[in-house]
Amino acid sequence: MSAVSEWVVREYFETCGFLVQQPCKYENSGRRKREPGEDIDLLVVHPARAVHALPDRIVWTTDDLRHVARAVVGIRGWHTERFYVSTIEQTPDILRFVEPKALLFAGQQLGPGPLAKILCLPRLPASGELKADTIRVLREKGVDGVISFATILIELIRSVSVNRNYAKSDLLQVVRLLKTYDLIKDVQLDLFGRRIRHEVAPVEPGDA
Hints:
Helix content: 25-40%
Shape: globular
Number of helices: 7
Radius of gyration: 20 Å
Structural class: alpha/beta
Low-confidence stretches: 191-208
Order of helices and strands: HEEEHHEHEHHH
């Protein structure tokens, strides 16, 4: 997993009010048996959330996180690919974070209580049938929620103000600079502008 992908996801959960723990600071060389904590990318807990509830759907938005108190997080940052059933079949290790040993380790770190199992990934299939099959398999494997990197990045862009100096976060400071020089627009404003342009058709010559 790319350190940049983990960095982005970590900032996202912190922006959403979660305390974030990275259980493993090293990479397994593959020459020895894996420890349970090595299969977990992040553990997150919201200190102000006493009630833990999961959305009915598996594809989550940032709003869906408002009901999650604690979670174990897996990150798969293959940003040029979509996530298919074949991806899971060919690389089953990507879902080790939802296996019993990993969840037992997470419970030991966070204490007793329910845990959401969240997978952060680039994109699901675009096709309805392929997407439905992938979601079904993820549910069967024990994943509670899927958050796309598009959702994550949109929230980070939305949360950054050009009037603040994010000296303690290089990532947010870079986003701030990009927004300052109009290299990326405020997401909500950009979407609103697209909707207006779509709804108001241009007047062709001779129609006036």
